[in-house]
């Protein structure tokens, strides 16, 4: 039976260009997963959007002397361009500025307030005496009290991943003026996270399919005990509180942003013509929700968002949170816009075909540990693996059929043992790669697909149809026919990772529709079919000359 799959993808802040680390960490994995499930005939809804309320946006606006909206208007179109060029197949990519998102956020706030899961309390907060304003968490930097990292943010340390309170930072400094902030009291609405500790521990412990690092990190926090957390801030940019008397405060971004998964589903439903269709993805317990994020967002998706959902009631909890580690730029540095250590996605797409970038990022996808992006390794992966193992296989088989059989798939006759063995390997490839795709092991899925390509290359080399065609045309016909079936299978096996080139090849092979509509199976290429002209799937890249020292 077909499954219903909800794919929720981290919301990028609309204040910077996207980098390779983000692409490999959340967006490419989500797209690969969604494409695979669509090929399996499953009902998939993949959503995300630009987070327009994050304090990094207001920080950027303040530094430039412009409004947050002007920052968003600059970067949101660039994010959309990146998704289109990179092939990220969202069913909806929206923003947190829609009326629908505001309504959904305020509805959740109100429900939690009615259930006494929100309460007001005073909280120590840092205040900039020079700028004469309270400082939201990300307006403060300092030294992490747990690991000593000197550039920790007021809400989180990127070095050790710990959740922080800005007042706990050592030697804090204001990002507004550079001044040393003062501690002052401010009244805020607090979420009773502590009320969910036991329930969340039981739930997390019952998720054996979660990645070990995600499960262990989450259970570690629960062992320490969840603390209630403020969900409002003294700012004027964000979702207004649906409560009188708090007009000078806004709902804080970490509470607002995760609600975007729900509001986006509602927006998609309205656009689809069935405003209630979102309920199938949120209220049907048979739906599986997968949240694709980086490791710095684990706590929000395995603890805080599930607590909010439990508090609201009647909505599905995450089925899996396959959080990835970091892709580093050089010398172990995390990809970071603020530090200037990033490989920008649009720059990569200016230099290389999207499928080449997707292929390399899948190879180095940080599923279990941090990895490192190296442009010379991208070039090597293109030339020595993508082309040598897969591209040349497709090109030479198609070229031999065009040259020796007038571009018409030859009649194979009765297949011999070698040919049947290759087709058996192909069928096993769907099982093996499918198991990897389904469990979010995309590096493994790529390895399994390439193993099929390697088997096809070995079969071709051993049978040498370029020689046999001169002496035993029937032997050559059987070989090329069988190899072509393997190539057709590989367009499906590799499509989730390489959608552009496999779609092109799918058409060249004479198949109708798209690889996704053809399904997760070997779509045979019948004898007698005329093949399209096509062309090389990939181009060899020049290795840059070493810089003289």
Q: DSSP helix count?
A: 19
The largest sheet, given as strand count, sense and whether it forms a barrel, is: 4 strands, parallel
The share of residues in extended strands comes to: 5-15%
The number of E-state strands comes to 16
Distance between the termini: 62 Å
Alpha-beta classification: alpha/beta
Q: What is the helix fraction of residues, given as a range?
A: 40-55%
Rounded mean pLDDT is: 93
Q: Indicate the radius of gyration in whole angstroms.
A: 26 Å
How do the strands of the widest beta sheet line up side by side? Answer: 3-2-1-14
Low-confidence stretches: none
3D shape:
elongated
Provide a quick synopsis of the model.
By secondary structure, this protein is an alpha/beta fold.
Describe what you observe in this structure.
With 549 residues, this protein is an alpha/beta fold. It contains 19 helices and 16 strands. It has helices spanning 20-39, 55-64, 68-86, 99-114, 197-205, 212-224, 253-258, 260-272, 279-282, 298-312, 345-351, 354-363, 375-405, 417-438, 442-463, 465-471, 473-493, 499-508, 515-518, and strands at 4-9, 43-50, 92-95, 118-128, 133-134, 140-143, 152-153, 170-174, 182-191, 229-230, 232-233, 239-240, 250-251, 288-292, 327-328, 371-372. The strands form five sheets. A four-stranded parallel sheet has the order 3-2-1-14, sandwiched between helices. The longest helix has 31 residues, at 375-405. The chain is elongated and about 90 Å long.
Secondary structure layout:
Layout: E1 4-9, H1 20-39, E2 43-50, H2 55-64, H3 68-86, E3 92-95, H4 99-114, E4 118-128, E5 133-134, E6 140-143, E7 152-153, E8 170-174, E9 182-191, H5 197-205, H6 212-224, E10 229-230, E11 232-233, E12 239-240, E13 250-251, H7 253-258, H8 260-272, H9 279-282, E14 288-292, H10 298-312, E15 327-328, H11 345-351, H12 354-363, E16 371-372, H13 375-405, H14 417-438, H15 442-463, H16 465-471, H17 473-493, H18 499-508, H19 515-518
């Amino acid at each position: 039976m077909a499954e219903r799959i909800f794919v929720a993808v981290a919301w990028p802040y609309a204040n910077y260009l996207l980098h390779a680390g983000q692409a490999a960490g959340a967006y490419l994995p989500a797209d690969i997963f969604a494409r695979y499930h669509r090929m399996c005939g499953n009902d998939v809804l993949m959503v995300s959007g630009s987070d327009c309320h994050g304090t990094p946006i207001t920080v950027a606006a303040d530094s430039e002397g412009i409004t947050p909206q002007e920052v968003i208007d600059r970067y949101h179109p660039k994010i959309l361009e990146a998704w289109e060029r990179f092939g990220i197949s969202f069913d909806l990519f929206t923003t947190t500025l829609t009326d629908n998102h505001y309504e959904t956020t305020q509805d959740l706030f109100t429900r939690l307030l009615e259930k006494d899961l929100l309460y007001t309390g005073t909280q120590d907060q840092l205040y900039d005496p020079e700028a004469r304003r309270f400082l939201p968490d990300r307006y403060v930097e300092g030294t992490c009290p747990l690991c000593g990292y000197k550039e920790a943010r007021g809400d989180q340390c990127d070095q050790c991943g710990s959740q922080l309170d800005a007042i706990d930072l050592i030697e804090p400094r204001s990002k507004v003026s550079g001044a040393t902030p003062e501690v002052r009291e401010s009244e805020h609405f607090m979420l009773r996270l502590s009320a969910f500790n036991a329930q969340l521990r039981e739930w997390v412990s019952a998720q054996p399919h979660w990645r070990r690092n995600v499960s262990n990190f989450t259970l570690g926090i629960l062992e320490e005990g969840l603390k209630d957390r403020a969900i409002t801030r003294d700012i004027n940019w964000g979702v207004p509180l649906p409560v009188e008397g708090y007009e000078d405060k806004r709902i804080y971004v970490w509470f607002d942003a995760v609600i975007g998964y729900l509001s986006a589903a509602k927006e998609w439903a309205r656009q689809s013509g069935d405003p209630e269709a979102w309920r199938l993805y949120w209220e049907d317990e048979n739906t599986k929700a997968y949240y694709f994020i980086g490791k710095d967002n684990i706590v929000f998706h395995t603890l805080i968002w599930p607590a909010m959902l439990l508090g609201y009631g009647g909505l599905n909890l995450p089925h899996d949170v396959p959080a990835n580690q970091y892709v580093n730029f050089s010398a172990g540095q995390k990809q970071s816009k603020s530090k200037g250590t990033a490989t920008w996605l649009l720059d990569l797409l200016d230099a290389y075909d999207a499928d080449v970038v997707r292929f390399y990022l899948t190879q180095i996808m940080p599923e279990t540990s941090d990895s490192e992006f190296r442009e010379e390794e991208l070039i090597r992966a293109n030339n020595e693996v993508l082309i040598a193992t897969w591209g040349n296989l497709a090109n030479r088989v198609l070229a031999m059929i065009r040259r020796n059989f007038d571009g018409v798939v030859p009649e194979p006759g009765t297949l011999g043992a070698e040919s049947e063995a290759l087709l058996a390997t192909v069928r096993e490839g769907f099982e093996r790669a499918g198991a990897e795709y389904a469990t979010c092991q995309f590096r493994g899925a790529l390895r399994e697909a390439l193993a099929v390509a390697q088997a096809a290359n070995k079969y071709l080399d051993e049978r040498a149809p370029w020689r046999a065609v001169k002496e035993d045309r029937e032997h050559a016909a059987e070989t090329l026919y069988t190899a072509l079936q393997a190539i057709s299978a590989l367009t499906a096996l590799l499509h989730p990772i390489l959608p552009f080139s496999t779609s092109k090849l799918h058409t060249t092979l004479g198949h109708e529709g798209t690889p996704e509509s053809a399904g997760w199976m070997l779509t045979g290429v019948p004898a007698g079919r005329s093949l399209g002209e096509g062309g090389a799937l990939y181009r060899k890249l020049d290795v840059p000359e070493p810089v003289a020292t």
